[in-house]
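Render this sequence as a predicted structure.
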Amino acid sequence: MTCVVATVSRLTILSGIGAFLAGCGGNTAGEFVRSSGLGPKTAEPQTFVVQSRKGTVDYIPVGTVAAGPANPAKNAEQVKEAEQEMDSLRARNANAGAAAAAAGGTPPPDPALTPASANAKKKVQTTPSTNP
C-alpha cells in the first residue's frame, strides 16, 4: 500500500512540474493539436499579410532606459513667467466675458408683427358701449 501511495505521489509531483514547465513554453496544447493533425486545417495567409508582418517581433529589452522628454523641465523663473502669462490671459478673458455679459444684458427687441396681429392692434371699438 505504501509503495502505491509513494508512486502516485511521485507521479503527481512529476506531472505538476511537467505542467509548470509546459506552461512556460507557450501554447503547447495548440502546438500538439496542430502537429498531430487533429486541429482544423488553416489556410495560408495572403501575400500582402505575409509581406506586411515581420518575421520576428522586436521587444524592448528589460532594463532599457526610455528616452527622456523632448522638452526639459522648467526652472522656477520659467514657471513664474508662465504663471504670470496665464494670469494675464485669465484677466483678459474675464474682461471680455464681462463685456459680452453687458452686451447681452440689453432687452430683447419686440417681436415682429404679422399682418393679422397688426390689424388686431389697429382695430378700434366702433360701436358705443351699452353699459349704463
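Summary. The chain has a mean pLDDT of 77. The first helix runs from residue 2 to 23.
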